[in-house]
Amino acid sequence: MLSLAVLVGFVKRKRVLKNMKKIPGLICLVVGGLLIYWGYNMSQSASGQFNNLVHGSPGNKPLLCYIGGAILVLAGLGQVAWKGK
Q1: In angstroms, rounded to a whole number, what is the distance separating the alpha carbons of residues 65 and 44?
Q2: What's the N-to-C CA distance of the chain in angstroms?
Q3: Into how many domains does the chain fold?
Q4: How many whole angstroms separate alpha carbon 56 and alpha carbon 49?
Q5: What is the pLDDT of residue 29?
Q6: Are 83 and 21 in contact (CB under 8 A)?
Q7: Averaged in consecutive runs of 10 residues, what is the pLDDT profile of the chain (85 residues)?
Q8: Rounded CA separation 73/35 (Å)
Q9: Minimal CA–CA distance to 75: which of 29, 33, 42?
């Protein structure tokens, strides 16, 4: 039979592992937020404003940062909110 100490240790380990599964989601949230912020800064810079004036759009780099950041934020939210096994 399992002793009580072994059983309590198993339960604690399972909680720690469940919380550690959320770390990649938190990293995705942070990196995605930084990408969105970086894309906003690129679109508001002098060269971004000039590109917007000439071409009518902020350019490819800020747009890719927005899209990549949004995907990472959604993936991070899904990972953090998902209650898996």
Answers
A1: 13
A2: 26
A3: 1
A4: 10
A5: 95
A6: no
A7: 57 66 90 95 82 77 93 94 73
A8: 10
A9: 29
The token pair at 84 is 């898996």
The domain of 36 spans 28-85
CA dist 3 and 26 (Å) reads 36
Structure tokens at 15: 């909680």
| pLDDT value at residue 33 | 96
Identify whether 8 is part of a domain.
Answer: no
> What is the reported pLDDT for 55?
78
pTM of the model: 0.71
Please report whether residue 39 resides in a domain.
yes
Q: What is the pLDDT of residue 27?
A: 94
